[in-house]
Specification:
By secondary structure, this protein is mainly beta. Helices cover 5% and strands 57% of the residues. It is built from 1 helix and 17 strands.
Amino acid sequence: MNLIKTLSFIVVLTSVALFSDEPASQPQSERPRIRLRPAAVVSNEQPAPEPCCKPAPAPCCDTGCWDMYASGSFIYWDPYQENMELGVVSDTTDPLYTLHGHVVNLDSQYKPGFKVAIGMSFPRNNWDSGFEYTWFRSNQHKSVSLEVDGPEVLFPMWLLPDASSPTYFSGRENWRLHMDLLDWEVGKRCCCGGLSLRPSFGVRAAWIRQNVEADYFNESTHFLNQQDVSITQRSHSWGVGLRGGLSANWMFTDHFRVYGQGDGDVLFTQYTNQRAHQQATTAAGLPAAGSFFTVRQNNANYLRGHIELEMGLGWGTDFCNQCTHLDFSAGYGFQMFFDQNMFRNFQDDQSLAKSSAPNGNLYIHGLTATLRLDF
């Protein structure tokens, strides 16, 4: 049975082949003309999706053969701190007022400093890492000189509480601030057209040292034993902790850019040396009896926060076959160091140890001009 089916199938195929052949003598014109449309090529492969944004030209992202960088910055900052006033100048001519005057603020002045940085860029995925050191010193002054035995007197703000409420005809204050900051960070640059973003994280170490001196002269009543009074306080600390930030650059031409940057950190901070001292002298210039007062506190541990924002303009160019990039930027920034005023404030003339600290934040604002070389 299987053999018969097989033979029948062969016969059918042979017949179809024979009857389908055209006679060789048939004219070309009589042959049916069938034009077949080329079949569309069907492929299961999907075209590669276009990127959401095209990479920007250097120096936005593609650093080519750059693998190291070094930079130097000139800083011109103005620091000021809460609760650092010298005193209150009051008019004593109106008997209706016990205190009628204005607060004498500590003068605020810009001071120079510098930053230096060095780091490297990794060959894959736009990662980079580096170190930066910041050096800043400031010395702020304020003085008041009133007419002796005149209508105005100076109520001191740094003096220990005194039931007799002494007032003076002159005073001066000097506040010194020394800051050293060392940062290590790792960042990754992400580009989209002319815009690049760089999130970063790292570690910060900080050394902040503050000293204040306040002097009050010519006690106004001439009856108290303390003719002149001198107060000194100091607060020295170190801290270490984590740091993170985000910077952005917008290249609006081939060379010019606008940048913005925000950073923050939280540091474990130890105040290693805190001291408050007060002493007075008589009209003869001798130490006044019972006028000396000293309080010390060492190794006080806290957590301290810090935030900063900066915005500015930059210019950059390539040379040496685009293997070296030079960049200059200048911007203005604002910083806040939380609870950095650790000068102790004494509050009671009966319970002398009653006091408080901290007494305010430290603020810094100013110019930062940076020259950077990538090579």
